[in-house]
């Protein structure tokens, strides 16, 4: 157990809908990352938050947004869902984030499996 | 460009045989590299970090800057090693850039 938790484990929804995925980082970690794992694209970085502020953006669609709250948990919002959004969404956390601290390592949560029908 | 390449999609070996999972990277600067393992599409578990030069579950990996490689090795494969293995490079801002993964299948 990495200490990173994600809810829900599974989500089945229809095209056009909106869902929210939740992540709680390890105790003491300030940085949260979101990744998408799909069969065709592999593991792709979406977005990173550090202590409530957006720090970096990757291949994140405009229909997707995220935020990190004062208690450091993070939510990833996916709207106007399409079939191609079906994937595993992972959250990871680390103490600091960035490359400033070479020992800063990302630990992953169990993921949320999203199925869009 | 920052990139990680794992040339083998699938590697199949017999129990007790040596294993080498290949990883090549492209990065200007000093790379930070990791190996993660994923069993049955569950959570990604950290296996190795190149900076710590540790050995986990008998796996080792050496950073070769000349060949821009970070291959994962184990002298004697076990059936429980069967999983997906991902090589990752810490990119700009700390995000991880993953290779496409190699599925290791260890046959009895």
Please provide a written account of the structure:
With 117 residues, chain A is an all-beta fold. Chain A is built from no helices and eleven strands. Chain A has strands at 5-7, 10-13, 19-24, 31-38, 42-50, 53-57, 64-68, 74-78, 87-94, 107-108, 112-116. In chain A, strands 2, 4, 5, 6, 9, 10 and 11 form a seven-stranded mixed β-sheet that branches. Chain A has a four-stranded antiparallel β-sheet with strand order 1-3-8-7, with no helix packed on it. Chain A is globular and about 40 Å long. The mean pLDDT of chain A is 92. By secondary structure, chain B is mostly beta strands. Chain B has a single domain (3-107), classed as Immunoglobulins (Immunoglobulin-like), CATH 2.60.40.10. Chain B has no helices and eleven strands. Chain B has strands at residues 3-5, 10-14, 19-21, 24-26, 33-38, 44-49, 60-61, 72-74, 83-90, 96-98, 102-107. Classes of the chains: A mainly beta (117), B mainly beta (108). Chains A and B meet through strand 4, strand 5, strand 9 and strand 10 of A and strand 6 and strand 10 of B.
